[in-house]
Write a structure and sequence with these properties.
Helix 12 packs antiparallel against helix 14. The chain is 37% helix and 17% strand. It is of the alpha+beta class. Strands 2-5-6-7-8-9-10-11 form an 8-stranded mixed beta sheet, covered by helices on one side. The chain has a 6-stranded mixed beta sheet with strand order 12-13-14-15-16-17, covered by helices on one side. A 5-stranded mixed beta sheet has the order 21-20-19-22-23. The chain has 25 helices and 23 strands. Belongs to the metallo-beta-lactamase superfamily. Type III sulfatase family. InterPro entries: Alkyl/aryl-sulf_dimr_sf, Alkyl_sulf_C, Alkyl_sulf_dimr, Bact_Alkyl/Aryl-Sulfatase, Bds1/SdsA1_MBL-fold, Metallo-B-lactamas, RibonucZ/Hydroxyglut_hydro, SCP2_sterol-bd_dom_sf. This is Alkyl sulfatase. Residues 1-25 form the signal peptide.
Length: 677
């Protein structure tokens, strides 16, 4: 029992929560009961007013989205390793016809476009599988087989998509793989198509941008639990697919939960421009880091006069800062990258196809250049005007309220805020330069939410008076203000069912008006939890085992560091060695972890000495374990109590100190309250 207690942090899989939604399999075991509600007259009027400013009936995007269709995707249902349904295409059958009252008509149009699923011929020998996952998989015919671009998020979706392609294109022998960037929906399904041994035996090039592995595994590993919880709101995790629930992310139908994997690239694109020939196909690569993803490439295929814009280009305004949380992206660098692509294509009169990692292609040289210039200008406008307004004293909220795209841009559907929005992107640009503080002393050190809420409710005359006033504003359709004031009341009195119900209704109306898929899902998820309680989602860490096996050990150590409970560690001074063995049983990595001043430090001794067996002679204990077993323990496939005394794991030194060390690690909470205190 001593060891079981010491390593409880491993019995709750440490990294099951670190790969945010798209890296883990989930089982929504709680029954989802969502309260439907009609759209108010104010919502109807708001949506009608927006529709009148847009050419909603324009069919160009629909024509392009259907162009080259070889076969419609099957109405498939997929399950994860535990038998839980992760994808049901039929659940989106309601997305047809005119927009219902409860969905923004512009978002509805995007949802219908994203529902066009199947195998498409972009050009002869160049194909896309769209609608099998959040992203697209692209197939390029090569001399002796096929080059696969972006093999989707999960093994389940990747395999289904490839099987479908083979039904119509014949047997697909993979001769090359391209990962366009470091987000999991573009590489997670690789092991459904190839494993590392096949890649090595057949000398198959796996091409990725510089920094790919580091960025792929590190973006969410430190702050994973918080990102996971926030992401459940952003992607509408607890919602049903319906006209009063989840409709679309804007970028695609939904995030797929399943088994994700990764393999090491064999070819790195680390130059601004880099030409390669892959199985007879000439490809000109462009390294474009630091915008939509920290590690990203685009490429040109001269044989098809076709350019792949990865996710730097899409048919939406993208996120400068994703609402699930991440580091702010550089809107100016993003704009510059798009400008570079535009100049490249503008200089090649023969270039007449633009295809990307999401959505549908654009055909026609002039049409492509126009689209690229508009996207370039959208991101630069957001950047420049935010900074301009900040430099005359406006704060983030004021900037977001004031900024509107110029009319020459605003009417273009590929610039609409279906995923990112001008509102939260402008706040992200402000954050990039100025941080969280807006300069007003009143916002420098405000009271925390509950303490502030109690005082607000008192100042407003108490709960009953506040509710009466809120009802007046609710009746006027002033839902943003109602949400602001009732949030105080709910945080002051979380058991006040009247307050929760009225706030939930305000959120629902704001959701029905939202043009952005994530905004809609966030508001509806908040309403759901106010009236239905938090949705308990259990994550199957074993589904991401293939991914975890590729994670550098340093990343595990960083994740351990942020789990140290500083209060419990007060006054403790401890250190341990962790020696990792290779498949041959030899130690090839050695870390020393120490605690002092309520801080955990780690050192990779293998990097500081030529002796792979080096360890701290002053450490209180040494744990020796293989990385493979370490991952098995992390995902709950092996138990330490069963391994003590075996040749797979050993402990030297003070067992009590080892127990103490790991007892100081806290357990993350990936189901913390958001709309409740």
């Amino acid at each position: 029992m001593m060891f079981k207690t010491a390593f409880y942090w491993l019995s709750v899989p440490l990294f099951s929560v670190t790969f945010l939604l798209t890296l883990v399999a989930c089982d929504q075991t709680a029954e989802v009961q969502f309260i439907d509600a009609a759209a108010s007259q104010f919502t109807l009027d708001s949506n009608l007013e927006l529709a009148e400013t847009l050419d909603i009936e324009n069919q160009v995007d629909f024509d392009n989205a259907k162009r080259g269709l070889i076969a419609k995707a099957p109405i498939n249902r997929l399950k994860n390793l535990r038998g839980t349904e992760i994808w049901n295409a039929a659940s989106y059958d309601f997305v047809k016809g005119d927009a219902p009252d409860t969905v923004n008509p512009s978002l509805w149009r995007q949802a219908k476009l994203n529902s066009i699923r199947g195998l498409f011929e972009v050009e002869k020998g160049l194909y896309q599988l769209r609608g099998f996952d959040l992203a697209n998989m692209t197939l390029i015919k090569s001399d002796n087989g096929w080059i696969v671009v972006d093999p989707l998020t999960t093994l389940e979706t990747s395999r289904v998509a490839m099987d479908f392609a083979e039904q119509h294109l014949g047997s697909i022998n993979i001769t090359g793989v391209i990962f366009t960037h470091s987000h999991v929906d573009h590489f997670g399904g690789i092991l459904a198509l190839l494993d590392a041994q096949q890649i090595a035996d057949s000398n198959i090039p796996v091409i990725a941008p510089v920094g790919f592995i580091h960025e792929a595994v590190s973006e969410n590993i430190i702050a994973g639990p918080a990102m996971l919880r926030r992401g459940s709101y952003m992607y509408g995790d607890p919602l049903s697919n319906s006209a009063t629930g989840h409709v679309d992310t804007g970028l695609g139908k939904q995030v797929i939960f399943g088994s994700s994997s990764i393999v090491q690239p064999t070819v790195t694109i680390d130059q601004p421009q880099q030409k390669l020939t892959v199985d007879g196909i000439e490809i000109e690569f462009f390294n474009m880091p630091g915008s939509e993803a920290p590690s990203e490439l685009t490429f040109y295929l001269p044989q098809w006069n076709a350019f792949c814009g990865a996710e730097i280009i899409s048919h939406v305004m993208h996120n400068v800062l994703t609402l699930r949380g991440a580091k702010v992206r550089d809107a100016l660098v993003w704009s510059d990258h798009i400008g570079y692509i535009a100049d490249f294509i503008d200089g090649k009169a023969e270039a007449d196809v633009l295809f990307n990692s999401h959505h549908w292609p654009t055909w026609g040289h002039d049409e492509i250049v126009t689209q690229l210039h508009q996207q370039q200008d959208m991101y630069k406008f957001t950047h420049d005007q935010t900074v301009r307004l900040a430099n005359i004293g406006l704060t983030p909220k004021e900037i977001a309220e004031r900024l509107v795209l110029p009319k020459s841009l605003a009417g273009n559907f590929h610039l609409r805020g279906y995923y990112g929005t001008l509102s939260h992107n402008s706040k992200a640009v402000y954050q990039y330069y100025f941080g969280w503080y807006n300069g007003n002393p009143a916002t420098l050190n405000p009271l925390p939410p509950v303490e502030s809420a109690l005082r607000y409710v008192e100042f407003m005359g108490g709960a009953e008076a506040l509710l009466e006033k809120a009802a007046v504003y609710q009746a006027k359709g002033d839902y943003r203000w109602v949400a602001e004031v009732l949030n105080h009341l709910v945080f002051a009195e979380p058991a006040n069912t009247d307050a929760r119900a009225m706030l939930a209704e305000a959120y629902r109306q704001m959701a029905y008006q939202a043009e952005a898929g994530p905004w809609r899902d966030i508001y509806l998820s908040g309403a759901y939890e106010l009236q239905g309680g938090p949705n308990i989602v259990r994550y199957d860490a074993a589904a991401s085992k293939g991914f975890l096996q590729q994670v550098p050990l340093e990343q595990f150590m960083k994740a351990l560091s942020v789990r140290l409970d500083g209060e419990k560690a007060e006054g403790e001074v401890l250190s341990i060695n962790i020696a990792f063995t290779n498949p041959q049983g030899d130690v090839d990595s050695n870390f020393v972890l120490s605690i002092r001043n309520s801080v955990m430090h780690y050192r990779n001794l293998t990097q500081t000495t030529t002796q792979t067996t080096a360890k701290s002679t002053t450490a209180d204990a040494t744990l020796t374990v293989s990385k493979a077993l370490f991952v098995d323990i992390l995902v709950g496939e092996a138990g330490l109590t069963d391994l003590i005394g075996s040749d797979q794991l050993s402990v030297d030194g003070s067992v009590l100190k080892l127990v103490k060390f790991f007892s100081l690690l806290g357990e993350p909470n990936d189901a913390f309250n958001i709309v409740l205190p």
